Amino acid sequence: MEKISIRIDDQDILAQKGATILEVALANKIYIPHLCYHPDLKPAGSCRVCLVELENGQLVTSCRTPVKDGMIIKTSSPEIDKVRRPVVEMIIANHHMDCKNCAKKGQCGLQRIMAYMKIDKKRIQQTLRLPEVELPFDESNPFFIRDHNKCVLCGICVRTCQEIARVSAIDFAGRGNNTRIAAFGDKPITQSKCVSCGECVIRCPVGALVVRNIGRPEREFKSICPYCGVGCGIYLGIKDNEIVSVRGDSENAVNNGNLCVKGRFGMGFVHSTDRLKTPLIRQGRGKGNPPSPPFSKGGQGGFVEVSWDEALTFVARKLKKYKGDEIAVIASTKCTNEENYIAQKFARVVMGSNNIDTSVRLCYSPMIAPLRDIGIWVGCDSPAEDSEISSDLLRQNLEQIEQAACILVTGANITLSYPVLGLKIKKAVESGARLLVISPHENELCRIADIWLQPYPGTDLALLMGMCNVIVEGALYDDAFVEMYCNNFEEFRESLDDFPLGRVERITGISRDLIEESARIYAGNKPGAIFWGTGITQSAHGTDNVYALANLSILTANIKYSRALNPLLGQNNALGACDMGCLPNYFPGYQPVDSKDAQVKFRSLWGRELNPEPGLTLTEILDATLEGKIKALYIIGSNLASNIAPFKKVHAALKKAKFVVSQDMFLNETAKYAHVILPAASFAEKTGTFINTEGRVQRIQKALKAIGDSRPDWEILCELAKRLKSEGFEFENTEDILSKLLEAIKDVPEVKRRFSFFPLKYRPPEEATDIDYPLILTTERDFSGDGVMSEKVEGLKGLRMKDFIYINPKDAADFEIEDGEPIRVISRHGAIESGARLRGTTPAGLVVMNLEGEKVNKLLNPVLDEESKTPEMKMCAIRIEKMKTLKKK
Amino acid sequence: MEEELLEDILASFKGKRYELVPILQEVQDNLGYLPEKAMLDIARFVGVPESHVYSVASFYAQFRLLPLGRKRVAVCRGTACHIRGAPQILSTIVKTIDLKEGETSDDLEYTLETVACIGCCALAPCIRINREVSGDMTPEKAKGLFLVKEGGEDVE
Ligand code: SF4
Ligand code: SF4
Ligand code: SF4
Ligand code: FES
Ligand code: FES
Questions:
Q1: How many angstroms does the Cα of residue A47 sit away from the middle of ligand 4?
Q2: In a domain? residue B104
């Protein structure tokens, strides 16, 4: 960058060309009063407080005037003061000047200006008029307060919401003296589009927007948000072993300092009074005493507190009774890589069982087979350079999403479930990327999409193959690439005969023109990135759906780009758990359990004969438990009882198991069936690494002493292994584990560099409507992820999507249901009660329900995807009834 | 009814950002005010944030965010009327129908506003109810034009 020399007051300064006077001054520790300027935002130049005087006597706003070579600038002069003083005095007169009791005191932009200009606020408030009425606070948001009596109308919040949060929930309203910042209709902020990200709050220069319950930390620790797979960088501020503040890490390329409501305000779960603090053992243990949920309210009835020593000795003694396939370990998508490595090693080495799986099975495992088959994404590719830890774990160089020329989103409500990723996509669209969104019902991205494709639920495959067909027939594919790098194109081309546009139009309900145009946009704008979520995978055709996306990507040679296929992982370390080998058929690094090479490698690494038979998947584990084949379940940080679709089966299996260990931060539904409960430490109380949804390996730091007697999961497992007389678990810290696990995934054999097409057949959804069940229910995730952690944060609970089902007003009229009315929802598999919400954006024939919680699972069809055994969790046929009709039955 | 009307109005526009103000004007001309639902639909239609539509609608004095009463009472405050007693007329009406300037009664019967010269200075002081102008007002005459409303004081 070119440097130029300027002079501010008496100081000669070498300044960056293109910078503004204010930027240069502030960077050189010269204070110029300012209000509407914020370094993260485009300058607005509206407050006129930042005036400076140029050599020729001209007064300019320093926040909007770029430096020029040889400029001579005065930051104070009688002329400046003459213009600025009345402006500032007016602001102060209209300001609720109660600095003593203000949360911003000492950090307030207005206080600073006042001190600089030596303004006596008492005098002003006597001579100038005060606002007539005091405006009421807006306290609707659980995490921040809006006090517009203190607002100086700098507009920073408005611009932040527009430029950074990209929500535009607020704007200036009214005029003249009556001007204020308001959400639509002057309603409380929680009734607006606001997503409670808090970005505006942290930028407000005065006390008009303040975070509730924030403390000043003694020390900050760099960490990673433990909620979703985006993996935003955060700093945890700690005081007296408590998290008192959280801020985004602006150096982290994932989020550039931005956070969503969970990351910024959701860390309260760490200090929740519900945290388990001591190991617990069920009373009357072992003597055929059936575990009988639920607990007596409030207490932990049936359990006694014991010491770690007692608990571990007890668990070890019990586990000894079961061997190999009689045991299954369910690992956690919330635990670190190090812990997951230990968990699968524990299952395989100590227990001799490959029955290890995670809740990834319930949402994402359909992607594993296809992505491996194409030879990308998992366990391959050369090391990238930008990893701070070890490149061995990284599979891609991380091209920025913003570079994509076309983005296809399907099966996910990204702005809701992965807010910070949503921001990146919006940014990409603003800078010209084309956006295609496939979703049966409207989400926010649909509104900015080039094309919003609205297929009947469960017909995605037909739509995607239809698009492939357009691309092949129109010769829009990359034939040089296909010829050189791809297998079985001919076979694939033939399979496309099944998907003429006329048929696809009938199946999906989308006009052929739209399908054609979408295919053209995707094929014509490269690189093209595809993002998909549970809408694609949590289906009885999940694996095929992912194959179909892969076809699209291969055909257009988009697959060459590293961001071509992007599964969206809900849990923060879902990918890490898979990479670490918490899968029944893969060792760490996706080395197949049944391959000779891998067997040899891990035998020598772990010094033990290993079970060469792939184990059972989570859904199969439950079946086997019901059949009595699996007798002991060791469940780490997963709440199966409320997460899994075949709901009754889970409870039956948990009840049937002879021995259940639950190792968790909280006493969850699953723990209620446990014989032993071991308290685990939270992410803030341990070190380790997570892998985010794009494959980035990131470290967390220990910021707190463990709460109560809880311990990190790896420690617990290693202790247990020692008590079971297994060697190879003598780790001092997570660094030791990391170096061992890196060894385990090193030198994974090269995966072929040819891509294969997948000929596919369309199968209609397993659940069809008929006269008795005329509506299709689909589920939607809100921001809370699995809800286990967010459930422990009061404010998040309050903001969550409520227990409603959304219905199109026309359907509601057919069933004579009114907004807010309690209704009964009946599927072929069960029935639940809920409240109706009428919403025009939900298409007729469809009802949408929040996926979280056990409730919806009672309705769902327990069909599994054949390949990955992931249960259908996205749709089922239902009817709705008014509650009144209940009585007749 | 309202919805169809709105549909019709929107159908005559393209959905461009710069059409926001003209659309708001036309909707207000037809519906008498800007209902929330209409503003939300307009935001969607022209592709701007809802908060922005509200910002514009609340900025211009010409837009009303609340419905008008069936009877729009306009008290003239022009010079001629003022000199000949408009303030007394206004305060009488304020008491009679229990509304302040700019307000609309809960039952949507009356909206009270003031205007500058309705062009009948010869008849000053004047008031206008909907289209009908009545001149040579006295507080008594003004009172007689309204049924005494509940909650409104009976002025002698
Ligand atoms: S919290 Fe976020 S979404 Fe809400 S108004 Fe502030 S910036 Fe906008
Ligand atoms: S609320 Fe804060 S940021 Fe927003 S305009 Fe007022 S003073 Fe500025
Ligand atoms: S987007 Fe995900 S990782 Fe980022 S702050 Fe929100 S929950 Fe945490
Ligand atoms: S800071 Fe420059 S005009 Fe407000
Ligand atoms: S001043 Fe009242 S009508 Fe002219």
A1: 5
A2: yes
A47 CB less than 6 Å from ligand 4?
A: yes
Range with the poorest average pLDDT among A650-654, A730-734, A866-870? A866-870
Smallest CA–CA distance, residue A137 to chain B, in Å, is 19
Ligand 1 centroid to A192 CA: how many Å? 10
CA of A45, closest atom in ligand 4: 3
Tell me which residue of A209, A219, A227 sits closest to A268, measured CA to CA. A227
B37-40: long-range pairs with CB below 8 Å, 24+: B37/B2, B37/B3, B38/B2, B38/B6, B39/A184, B39/A185, B40/A184
Whether B83 is covered by a domain: the verdict is yes
- Could you tell me the CATH number of the domain that includes residue B100? 3.40.30.10
Residue A130 one-letter amino acid: L
Question: What is the C-alpha radius of gyration for chain B, rounded to an integer number of angstroms?
Answer: 18
d(CA A689, CA A680): 17
Q: Rounded CA gap, A716 and A107, in Å? A: 44
Q: Which residue, by CA, sits nearest to atom 4 of ligand 3? A: A232
Query: Lowest-pLDDT range, A366-380, A465-479, A628-642, A816-830?
Result: A366-380
Q: Whose Cα sits closest to atom 4 in ligand 2?
A: A157
Distance between CA A866 and CA A767 in Å, rounded? 16
Residue where the block lists tokens 């589920």: A779
State if residue A423 touches ligand 1 by the CB under 6 angstroms criterion: no
CA dihedral B113, B116, B122, B127 (to 10 degrees): 0
CA of B2 to nearest chain A CA: how many angstroms apart? 16
Does some domain include residue B15? yes
B53 within ligand 5 shell (Cβ under 6 A): no
B139 assigned to some structural domain: yes
Residue B84: domain span: 71-146
Rounded to whole angstroms, the Cα distance separating A542 from A532 reads: 11
pLDDT of res. A129: 62
Same domain, B34 and B82: no
Q: Which amino acid is at A273?
A: T
Cβ–ligand 5 contact at B137 (below 6 Å): no
Boundaries of every domain in chain A: 3-127, 280-364+583-731, 368-567, 775-888
CATH entry, A368-567, from 3.40.228.10, 3.40.80.10, 3.40.190.10, 3.30.1360.20? 3.40.228.10
The domain A3-127 is placed in CATH, from the list 3.10.20.740, 3.40.50.720, 3.40.50.300, 3.60.21.10, at 3.10.20.740
Three-class DSSP labels, B29-88:
HHHCCCCHHHHHHHHHHHCCCHHHHHHHHHHCCCCCCCCCCCEEEEEECCHHHHHCCHHH
How many folded domains does chain B comprise? 2
| Region for A432 from its dihedrals, namely left if φ exceeds 0, alpha if ψ lies in -120 to 50, beta otherwise | left
In whole angstroms, give the CA distance from residue B93 to residue A369.
Answer: 79
Architecture of domain A280-364+583-731: 3-Layer(aba) Sandwich (3.40)
CATH code, domain carrying B13 = 1.10.10
Two tokens, residue B43: 């935001």
Q: Are residues B79 and B38 in the same domain?
A: no
Interchain proximity B58–A174, CB inside 8 Å: yes
Is-above-0.80 flag for pTM?
A: yes
A46-95: pLDDT as tens digits: 999 999 999 999 999 999 999 999 999 999 999 999 999 999 998 888 88
Q: Does residue A232's CB lie within 6 angstroms of at least one atom of ligand 3?
A: yes
Residue A377 CB-density burial (10 A; 0-12 exposed, 13-18 middle, 19+ buried): buried
Q: Which atom of ligand 5 is nearest to the CA of B117?
A: 4
By most ligand atoms within 8 Å of CB, the mutation choice from B89, B126, B127, B133 for ligand 5 is: B126
CATH numeric code, A775-888: 2.40.40.20
Residue type, A235: Y
**Residues B61, A175: C-beta atoms closer than 8 Å:** yes
- Please tell me the distance from the alpha carbon of residue A580 to that of residue A433, in angstroms, as a whole number: 35
